[in-house]
Amino acid sequence: MVDVLLGLQWGDEGKGKIVDFLASKYDIIARFQGGPNAGHTLYVNGKKVVLHTLPSGIFQSNCKNLIGNGVVIDPIVLKKEIETVIEDCPDLLSRLYISSRAHLILPTHKALDAASETAKGKEKIGSTLKGIGPAYMDKTGRNGLRIGDILSADFSEKYEKIKFKHIQLLNQYDFKIDWQQWEFSFFEAINYIKSLQIINAEYWINNELNNGKKVLAEGAQGSMLDIDFGTYPYVTSSNTIAAGVCNGLGIAPSKIGEVYGITKAYCTRVGSGPFPTELDNETGEQLRKAGNEFGATTGRPRRCGWIDLVALKYVIMLSGVTKLIITKADVLDSFNTVKVAYSYKINEVETTELPFDLCEGNFEPQYKEFNEWGMPISTCKDFSELPQVFKEYCIFVEQYLGVKIDYISNGTGREQLIKKN
Ligand code: GDP
Ligand code: IMO
Ligand code: MG
After folding, report:
1. Minimum-distance ligand to the CA of 50?
2. Taking the CB of the first residue and of the last residue of the chain, which one, N or C, has fewer CB atoms within 10 A?
C-alpha cells in the first residue's frame, strides 16, 4: 500500500518532522512532485537539517528513499544536499534511488524564473527562484531533459540545444541574469549524479509493492499551492494534492491507502497571493515570532494568520484525507484568544464554499473564538494532559472537517508528538 502525506495549507506545515517520525513504519519514502523549492526541517540528534530534494526518510536506516519521476531535480542542489547529510547518514547512497524520468532543472531555468518574476513586477508570484516553473514548462512543453538523459552519449548536445532556446527567451528581457556562473557546478554535479542509483522507478516501486512493502509518499508544498486547485496564479507548478502521487510515482489509484493531511494550528504563507485569514498586524507578528516563521528555503518572513477551515475542508475533499495531523499547537500557548475561520461572507452572503477567485478579496472570514489555553502545551505527553480549551478546539476542528485528528505536534523534536485516537 502507498500511504500519502500532504501539507493542507500553503506549505511549511511541518511535513519533514512528521515524515521523519512516521518513516520507521515504512520501507520506502518517496517524493512525487516539486523540487528544491521545498524546505523540510528535521532534527537529527538535536541537529537541525533542512532537506530540499532528498526524501525525509533518509535518517531512518530501515528506509529506502525514492526521488520520483514527478520531481524536478537541480543537480547542484542534490549534490550539495547529499554532501551535507552524508556524515549523519553514511549508508545513504545505498538507500537512495532516482527515477530516470525525473526532469532536470538547468542553470537557464533558474535564470528564466528570475527574469519572469522581475518582469512581473508587483504581480510577481514570490517564487523561490529555484527554476521550478520553467522546468515544469519545458516538461509539459515537451522540451525538457530528464535524469535518464545524463547517461546518454549525446547529453551535451541535447543540453546545448535547449540552452540555445532559453538564451533566445532570455534575450527578450531588457536585463541580464548571469546563469553562466552555475554552468560549471551543473556539469560537475551531473557527473556526480551519474554514479547514483538511477532506475526505472515505476517498475521498481510496483515490484516493491507486490512484495508487500509499505510506501509513504511525501508531499512537498501545500494543497493551496496546487497548480489546478490552489490560489491560481499564485501557486507552484505541480499537483500537490493526492492525485499527484499516481502521476509522480507511476502507481495506480487503487494502491493508495491512508492520506495524512497536515495543518498548522494556525496558518502561514510565503510569497504573494491571497490569504483570507492573514493577520497583517501585531497578532500576526506575534505568531511569526512565537512560531519562528521564516522560510526554510529562502529565509523570507512567512505571512501569518488564523487557521482557515473553509480552505482546509476544500482540500480535504480533493485529496480524500483520512487522518489529520495538527502541528505547532504549542505556538498558540501565549495567545489570549485563538480564532478559527469557519465561513466567508461574500457581499453579505455567508458561504462555506471556496470561491473561484480568492484574488478578488471581496469576502470576510467569520470566526469562532477560543479562550487562552491557560497552560503550556509543549510539555504535555498525552492527550489527557492537554488543556480543556485546546481539547474543545480539536473537537470543533474534527467535527467541522469530518476527519479525525491522529497526532498533535507540540514542538520541533521528534518525540514531541501526541497520539490522539
Ligand atoms: P515543511 O516544509 O512542511 O517540512 O515545514 P518547514 O520545515 O518548512 O517548517 C516547519 C517549521 O516548524 C520547522 O522549523 C519545524 O522545525 C517547525 N515545527 C514542526 N512542528 C512543530 C511543532 O509542533 N511546534 C513548533 N514550535 N515547531 C514545529
Ligand atoms: P515546502 O515543501 C512554502 C511557494 C513560493 C511561491 C510559490 C511558487 O517546504 O512546504 P515556486 O518556487 O514553486 O515557483 O514558488 O509557492 N512555495 C512554497 N511555500 N513551502 C514550500 O515548500 C514552497 N514551495 C513553493 O513561496 O509563493
Ligand atoms: Mg518548508
Report:
1. 1
2. C
Sheet-wide strand order for 323-327: 197-199, 96-99, 64-67, 28-31, 215-218, 2-7, 256-264, 323-327, 405-409, 417-419
Whether 12 is a known active-site residue: answer yes
Residue showing cell 547529453: 155
- The alpha carbon of 40 and the centre of ligand 3 are apart by a number of angstroms equal to 5
CATH of 263-419, one of 2.40.128.50, 3.40.718.10, 3.90.170.10, 3.30.70.260: 3.90.170.10
Identity of the residue numbered 288: R
User: How do residues 131-173 score in pLDDT, each as one tens digit?
Assistant: 999 999 999 999 999 999 999 999 999 999 999 999 999 999 9
pLDDT tens for each residue of 164-191: 999 999 999 988 888 989 999 999 999 9
How far is the centre of ligand 2, averaged over its atoms, from the C-alpha of 37 (Å)?
Answer: 6
CATH topology of domain 103-192: Adenylosuccinate Synthetase, subunit A; domain 2 (1.10.300)
Q: What angle do CA 113, 116, 119 make, to 5 degrees?
A: 145
All structural domains of the chain with their residue ranges: 2-101+199-259, 103-192, 263-419
* Chosen CATH of 2-101+199-259 out of 3.90.226.10, 3.40.440.10, 3.30.1330.10, 3.40.50.10470: 3.40.440.10
Within 8 A by CB and 6+ apart from 111, the residues are 166, 170, 177, 178, 179
Question: Which atom of ligand 1 lies nearest, measured to the CA of 19?
Answer: 4
Query: Which residues surround ligand 1 with Cβ inside 6 Å?
Result: 7, 11-17, 39-41, 296, 327-328, 330-331, 409-412
How close is the Cα of 214 to the center of ligand 1, in Å? 25
pLDDT recorded at residue 385: 95
For the CA of 331, the closest atom of ligand 1 is: 26
Tell me if 133 CB under 6 Å of ligand 2.
yes
Distance CA 83, CA 310 (A): 42
Distance 346 CA to ligand 1 centre (A): 33
Residue 12 near residue 300 (C-beta atoms within 8 A): no
